[in-house]
Amino acid sequence: MSNTDNIDDTTNLGHQTDAGHTPNSDDWPSWATEPVFIVPPDPAWPATAGQEIDDLLPRLAPFGIHRIEHIGSTSVPGLPAKPIIDLITEIPDFGAIESIAEQLRPYDWHYVPPGLDDRPERRFFIRVRDNKRAVHLQFHLHDSRKAKDQRQFRDILRTNPATKEQYAGLKIQLAHQHATDREAYTHAKSDFVRQALKTIPMRIIFATNNDHKVQEIQAAIGSSLQVVSLRQAGINIDIPEPHDTLEANATEKSSTIHRLTGDNCFSEDTGLEVLALNGEPGVKSARYAGDGRSNQDNIQKLLHELGNNPDRRARFRTVVSLIWQDKEYQFEGVCNGHILQQPAGGSGFGYDPVFVPEGETRSFAQMSLEEKNRYSHRRKAADQLVAFLQKQPKNHD
To answer: Is the distance from CB of 237 to CB of 294 less than 8 angstroms?
Structure first.
């Protein structure tokens, strides 16, 4: 089998085998050579992948595997695909693969040895149901470039509708052209994948699911790179913020995401610091009125605590923690201003309705996003982040 540069599709490989045994091609079952068949997108695919991951994790935990990701076309909402779930995980070395194969064999998992897979950078398993491929599972070494490319291409498709539409058309076209030749089908898509990885702006994970923050910092950064939220990157966790400084909480978030993905990422922690309240709410800004309370609750508590105090001076402060090439860098942005007696405006989020930046008479919530970015603490920190990133090589090859 030829070694094609396969990113999205792994179904051209996989023949029934016991660990360490390569059967004669005449013995291959029908699922090993089933034709390329594209079906409309199924909203149930992500849930099915989640069930498969939940089933696998307890079986693989003894081998130090605690994270498995859904990749490939079935992980992209609205994208036609072969009805096969693609999963990926990373391990320190391949020494335990034979033991993993023994562990998974009773659950209809078939190990494809490297001699058949022809992908020395990974180890490959196929789960069969009703004599058809149902799930693929790839094992890559930690910090594998191939694994990163597969995750990045998935994320490009998730967040770029035009690229997803082009890819969907290409897949359908090639499935008709190469219905009985999986390798040809996969090879024919490789140029598209490589070009997508090269031409899409550099992507970086922002450790948040706050859409307002993503939009705000994306507007601040512009088109020099594409900001990907945790949700868009397929990460569904709630990262604690246990520390008493913005710097430590920012590091906690970025390092957590980096440990999970190995990717370049950044986080931010922002606090409103009111002088008359000795810097409160500070690191507690998002939960000032208590866990689970609304922005309005936080604002009302802040106004209550200040009362009629004439000293309304305050500042927003943002600390960005960037992990780039396994090293952390921090950037700070500050916006000085004062707190209003009553909320004003309906835009923005958080404390924006009661905060007026220096040099203005309007609150952040009375400004457009473009106007707010002229003063924004996040913009100031983001400008430093972008200045740093622009000096770094952005190689998609």
So the answer is: no
Q: How far apart are the first and last CA of the chain?
A: 24
Q: Read off the pLDDT of residues 82-140 as tens digits, 9 standing for 90 and up.
A: 999 999 999 999 999 999 999 999 999 999 988 888 788 999 999 999 889 999 999 99
5 Cβ partners below 8 Å, 6+ apart? 187, 190, 193, 194
Q: Is residue 45 part of a domain?
A: yes
Cα of 6 vs its chain's centroid, Å: 21
Question: Residue 232: helix, strand or coil by DSSP?
Answer: coil
The answer to whether position 2 is within a domain reads: no
| Encoded amino acid at 175, one letter | A
Residues 88, 92, 95, 97, Cα dihedral to 10°: -10
208, 69: one domain = no
Backbone angles phi, psi at 132, to 5 degrees: -135, 150
Here the CATH number for the domain that contains residue 224 is: 3.90.950.10
Helices and strands, number each (H, E), in the chain: 11, 11
Domain residues for 266?
Answer: 202-390
Positions annotated as catalytic residues are 269
